Structures are given as structure tokens and as C-alpha cells.
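Exam revision sheet. Question 4 asks you to relate a sequence to its structure. Input first:
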Amino acid sequence: MANRPSLALIALFASVVAITPLAIDMYLPAMPLLSQALQTDAGAVQQTLSIFLAFYAIGMLLFGPLADAIGRRALALFGLAGFIASSIWLSQCSTIEGFLVGRAFQAFFGSAATVVVPGMIRQLYQEHTAKGMSYVSMMMMLAPLLAPAIGSGVLSIADWRWIFLALAGYGLLILLCSWQFFPATHPDSKRKPEFFSAYRTVLSRKMAQPLIAVSMFASFSFFCFLTAVPFIYIGHFHVDTTTFSLLFGCNVLALIAANFANARLVVKHGSARLLHIAFASASVWALLLTVLGGFDAPLWAVVTAIIPLMASLGICATNADALILMAFPEHSGTATAVIGTLRFGAGAAAGPLLALGGQTSVLPFAVLMLSGVCGMGLALWFRRVRGATQAA
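Answer key, C-alpha cells:
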């Protein structure tokens, strides 16, 4: 008989998974300060986010299969300990090279801690897994909403190094709670970690390939925004860190509202139709943002275009992922891991490309976001053509 989800344990699971958005978003207000402190340019600082996303994707690929082989509790504790150590390292860095190394390890160890949570919920709650995951997702929405505000709060009383010391302190608290309250799990001796068969299973399904591309392009556009927005809002428009946190929070609230609206509408209209509607909306707003960037529009106009664009991208990614999972009823766990790895991998490309375009205006990142939306359009067109060909 499966246990019903315990609110306290679910909150602990959510707290573990929250280390990822906290590590990504808490230091965003400090990015312009980092470029000064580490004596480097904006492009190099943007690479610190890209390197995090890349090594988080690599970690998911490696640690996902290992969780079943060595036990989830042990892997989570190992990951949290490494996350703490790497966060302390980051707080002491004085060069961009050392900082990049620290971010790589922070992401790699962080993925070891977070990748075990869905499997642990599934193992504990069985038929109540969906309810447990829903609770974790709802709690997780708070992390990206609060993280920039927390980072701004730290900057108001201390320098940027304390953001990473705060992350280390948070990791230590979660490590102690996990040591005390995480249930013991045992490795499955019948399963061996398979690092590449999962990709073959998912990527070989031809009808799922365009949807995977849609999800990746949506993530690329999203992380273009995430990587560029500190330098656009703080550097280009000269807003303070508090205003930055409020503007960033508006985008998170838009994503939350979009997810709630999608959950209600998908029952009536279906994921495929909502995906196409959201893509049309994203196309309009991405094109408008590019035009505004070309004319050096004021902050309010740029924000007005970004908020609905982010909401549209969120709906696109959610429905593309849902359609992918529907294509793999017997391999939904594998598909989830593959989607996560590919999405973070696509996001990692945003930083290097933004560095090529520079951050002197809104236009470079607007063009990259528009290119991501165009990539989604090509993938949807290819899906329609392939479907028509197979039906003929």
C-alpha cells in the first residue's frame, strides 16, 4: 500500500530541487558587479550561466541512471555536499577562470542531488506519485520568483560573495535535513546504469523528434532572456537591483499564470492545439521585441513585449513536453530525463551566442530569441509535413 504524500517530506524534496533555480537566479542581480570584481567583460560573465547549464545537463545524463544503481539517498547527500563545497569555492574566487570551474562543479554536484527526487517520490508514493510531483512543482514556483529578490537583498547589505555563501548555508541546512529525514533507499541490483540507450530510445522515435526540437528551441529562447536580462535591465536601462527583482518577478508570475491557464485549457483544447496557439503568440511578441530593440525603445515597451513572450514560451514548452511523454507511455521516465538534458544543453548555447552579439542594446538578445521562435516554427512545420507524409 503506497503512502500518501507527507507535506513535510514533500517540502524537503522541493527544497532539494530548489537549489537549481536558486543557483541560477540568485546571482543574476550581481552579474554586472561580477564583471567588475573579476576584471572581465559581460560576455565572460554570461558564460558562467552557460557553463552551469551545460554541466547540469551532463550531470543529469550521468547521475540519472546511477541513482537506481547506487541508491538515491546516498547520491543526494553526495550531491549536496559537493554543492556546498563548490559554493564556498565560488565565494572566494578572484578570477573568471576559477569562477567558471566553480560553476561547473556547482552544477554537476547539484544535478546529483536534484535528479533523485522524482524517482524517490515514485518509489515512496507509487499511485500517489502525480500528487506528490504536483506539490513539489507548486512549491518550486516560489524559488525563481524569490531568488533575484534574495540576491538583491544580500547585495544591499554585503558584496556579491555573500550570495554564494548564502547558497552554501542553504545547502548545508538541506543536507542536514536530508541526512535526518530522507528515507533509506536501496540500489536495484537488477538494473545497470545505461548512459546512451535512453537517448536511442527517445531520439529514434521520428514523430517525437520535431517536438523535442520545439522544446529545445523554447528553452534556448528562455535562457537567452535569462542570460541577457541582468545586463539589459541593470546595464542598459540602469535600473537598481530592487527594480530588477520586481521586473524579473513579473516574468515568473507570467509563467505561473500561463501554466495555470494551460492546465485548465488543455482538457478542452488538447496539447497540440495549445502548442500552435502559443507558438503564434510567441512569434508576434518576439517579432515586436526585435522591432523595439532596433528602435532602442524605452524600458516599459521592452518589458511589455517580454512578459507575454515568456508566458507563450512556457506554454509551448509545457505542451511539447506533454506530447513527447504521450509518445512514450512505457518510457516516460527516460523521456523526462532526456528532455531535461537536451533543454539545459540548448540553454547552454545562449551565453556564447550572446557574447558574439554583445550587450550594448536590446537588439542582440531579441534577435536570438526570435531565432529560437523561428526554430520552433520550422520544427512544427516539419512535424506537420512528416505527419501528412505518413498518412498518405
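Marking note for examiners. Residues 294 and 363 are 6 Å apart (CA to CA).
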